[in-house]
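Anyone up for a design puzzle?
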């Protein structure tokens, strides 16, 4: 089969002329750069460099292995580290006409098995070791639960193998004949669902979100404009690649630009700081927890971070005080999108925004997205200032959850607007501020308390490094507020924190009644705090105290 398109893009052109890229897939961009700038670096890890030619070859090698699984229906579960091999696997799936199912590398077997079953994946692409652990036991357990599962083992050197369990239970390895595939499959157009990824699983088993090439190319266009991206950017992605934030920052935008992308198999703040300095990174992409860790790191005190021009952050509340400290320390603008894996971008801050807009809000509503706000009775809120649950409509939305009618019923309004799980306030200028999540609203004696707002108050305490606020059951008030903190002071007590918050004028309802210190907060596969696990931990601790 011959290629049907001839691409003539130049490096960085996407930032100035994005309309030309309509209908072009990332797989095609990788092939284009492998032919025009083959020896330029596509990915950097702490120990290696991967050229565009090697990236393209790895995609073809994995596609060659997938080809052994046969044609027809069968999704591809992708469980790989957050390095070039993951991105090559997405391109390989696209080239062979298979829908990729992105699974976070930190996921446990229960979640992995659930996603394979939910997506009806017939092939797993993984590696022999993942996050330093041999995957043989994991693969054996998955084969026991999914007997027909074929497995492709792959690495960034384009070494691949294909294994299948026969009808008699025998494990066989089939030889992989390396081929060059067309960069796009006749099965796909860029508006079709080509990938499924999971919600971050903070409260239970995740759902599968439908992804298309078009929505993330559109997202990347807005990001390029917001950050005034130029032709010489160097990206560093600290967020897990299979999720929405990781997709546009590591899979889509760098490939559209032909830019170098620095990646890590697992996040380490000291390694991140070293890579920023060594590679002269201009564009940092990380969740709030990660940049807060950078600010607290001794390594950052002496590191040269002057190459940083902007940081996209989010995935959780962006704390004003620490965002300001990051800007002052690095000179880089702190930017964020508001939205979700499901809705795509709803609002964005830009390098042209004033400091208050950039650091104290989620920016202005994006022109191409429509936003409505609903109260607790699902009635639309009107007026110059609106507060409630947002519902959105527009081209950046996903196409719903895969194979989950009940979840889709909860995701959409009756007239087709997609709901987010937050409580927001939109001011008279169209700026969005998140004041809480519906799931993060603690109802104490009939009073609605935003856990996000309480976290902001507690986080300002000088000895608090990380905090998650949850509601714990109470027979009288229904719920009470509990702060679970990682603290430099292991003896930080509820009394001490109460006195400190009161001295700062915090309303009584927003002062935690319980304070618990932990060595670390449990994290979900998407890099966010696992609030469900935090709540369970808090409930157990309180029960133990009697």
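Challenge accepted. My sequence:
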């Amino acid at each position: 089969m011959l290629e049907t398109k001839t691409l003539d893009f130049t490096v960085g052109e996407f930032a100035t002329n994005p309309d030309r890229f309509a209908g072009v897939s990332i797989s095609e961009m990788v092939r284009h750069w492998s032919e025009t700038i083959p020896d330029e670096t596509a990915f950097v890890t702490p120990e290696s460099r991967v050229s565009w030619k090697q990236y393209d070859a790895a995609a073809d090698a994995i596609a060659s292995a997938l080809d052994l699984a046969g044609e027809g229906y069968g999704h591809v579960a992708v469980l790989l580290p957050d390095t070039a091999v993951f991105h090559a696997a997405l391109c390989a799936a696209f080239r062979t006409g298979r829908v990729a199912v992105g699974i976070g590398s930190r996921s446990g077997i229960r979640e992995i098995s659930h996603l394979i079953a939910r997506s009806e994946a017939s092939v797993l692409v993984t590696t022999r070791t993942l996050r330093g652990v041999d995957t043989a036991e994991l693969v054996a357990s998955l084969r026991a639960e999914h007997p027909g599962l074929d497995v492709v083992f792959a690495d960034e050197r384009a070494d691949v193998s294909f294994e299948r369990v026969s009808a008699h239970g025998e494990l066989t390895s089939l030889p992989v004949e390396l081929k060059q595939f067309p960069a796009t499959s006749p099965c796909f157009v860029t508006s079709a669902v080509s990938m499924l990824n999971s919600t971050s699983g903070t409260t239970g088993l995740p759902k599968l979100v439908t992804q298309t090439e078009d929505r993330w190319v559109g997202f990347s266009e807005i990001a390029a404009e917001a950050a005034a991206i130029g032709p010489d950017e160097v990206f560093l992605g600290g967020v897990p690649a299979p999720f929405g934030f990781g997709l546009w920052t590591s899979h889509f935008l760098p490939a559209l630009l032909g830019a170098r992308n620095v990646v890590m198999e697992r996040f380490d703040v000291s390694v991140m700081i070293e890579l920023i300095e060594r590679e002269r990174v201009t564009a940092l992409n990380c969740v709030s927890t990660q940049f807060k860790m950078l600010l607290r790191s001794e390594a950052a005190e002496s590191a040269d971070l002057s190459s940083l021009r902007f940081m996209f952050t989010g995935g959780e509340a962006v704390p004003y005080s620490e965002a300001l400290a990051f800007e002052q320390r690095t000179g880089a603008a702190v930017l964020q999108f508001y939205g979700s894996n499901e809705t795509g971008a709803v609002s964005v801050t830009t390098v042209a925004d004033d400091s208050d807009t950039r650091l104290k809000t989620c920016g202005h509503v994006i022109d191409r997205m429509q936003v409505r706000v609903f109260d607790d009775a699902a009635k639309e809120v009107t007026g110059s200032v609106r507060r409630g649950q947002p519902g959105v409509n527009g081209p950046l939305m996903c196409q719903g959850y895969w194979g989950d009618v009940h979840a889709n019923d909860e995701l959409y309004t009756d007239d087709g607007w997609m709901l987010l799980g937050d409580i927001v306030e939109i001011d008279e200028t169209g700026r969005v501020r998140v004041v809480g999540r519906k799931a993060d609203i603690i109802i104490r004696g009939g009073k609605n308390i935003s856990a996000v707002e309480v976290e902001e108050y507690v986080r300002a305490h000088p000895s608090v490094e990380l905090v998650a606020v949850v509601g714990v059951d109470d027979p009288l008030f229904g719920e009470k507020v509990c702060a679970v903190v990682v603290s430099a002071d292991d003896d930080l007590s509820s009394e001490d924190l109460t006195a400190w918050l009161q001295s700062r004028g915090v309303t009584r309802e927003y002062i935690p009644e319980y304070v618990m210190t932990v060595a670390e907060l449990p994290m979900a596969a998407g890099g966010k705090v696992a609030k469900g696990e935090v709540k369970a931990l808090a409930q157990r601790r309180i029960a133990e105290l009697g």
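A detail worth pointing out: The chain has a mean pLDDT of 91.
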